[in-house]
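Thought: the user asked what MobA-like NTP transferase domain-containing protein looks like in 3D. I have the sequence; next I should run the structure tool and report back without guessing.
Action: structure_tool
Action Input:
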Amino acid sequence: MSVRIGAISVGGMGVRFRRPGTQKCLTLLSGRPILEYSIDSFVANKVKLIFLLTGHLHEQISSYLVKRSLQGKDSDVVVSAVYGGLEGEIGALRKLRPFIDEDFLYTEGDTVFTNRTVQSLISKADRHKDGVAVLSVSKSVEIALKHPRISVDSLTSRIASIAVTDQEMENNRSAKYARMGLYYFRKKVFPLLENIPFGRPPSEIIRYALMNDLPFFASITTNPWFCLHDQEDFKKWNRSDVKQYFMD
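Observation:
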């Protein structure tokens, strides 16, 4: 089974990235904008329509799309900007509801992952059609120190708990996977979003699902990946051998 639609959040201010005046997702990472890694991974998995959820510096995303079109990169896929506003990812996701009436992929614009990771996520979703969503998680927590920790029921693959704060992580020893910021959402996720306040991260969707006994599954990957929250992560990329997996 394939999924036709993807969405990528690219509206954050990126203050911690220390590149004022530049949208973080357009920062070059080994010669390519960070954003392109996600776009290319979606396209490699037959996604045909990709929404870029913009916010701060949205005009730079528009300019990027014009340049991308002139380069002829989107001959068989449509990449379109949707203004998601300045109220965080939950608010931006709500803006997609008029455009989507089917399952879709979603990722945050600061995570780099392999094509195989996306393929595994789609396969997992195909096996668990009763869930609200499937989230890619990884044991490689050392490269995602700021990402929430997830515990997974080994028999059902359902997410059992999420630990967001340092104290929660300390108290929940079973939360041994890192949230990658890559989701497969069922279209039925949209009504859930109405119950989550603006400004909250997508991990709040998991919390809400757990509180209401709604199945939220995990796709565990051992494939290489990387997240870039701040300048130190950018430096870490340049020192890491992980980047070799993403070179053309």
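Thought: the tool returned a structure. Summarizing for the user.
Final Answer: Structure for MobA-like NTP transferase domain-containing protein predicted. Residues 1 and 127 are 10 Å apart (CA to CA). Helices lie at 34-44, 58-70, 88-94, 115-127, 166-171, 189-193, 203-211, 231-239.
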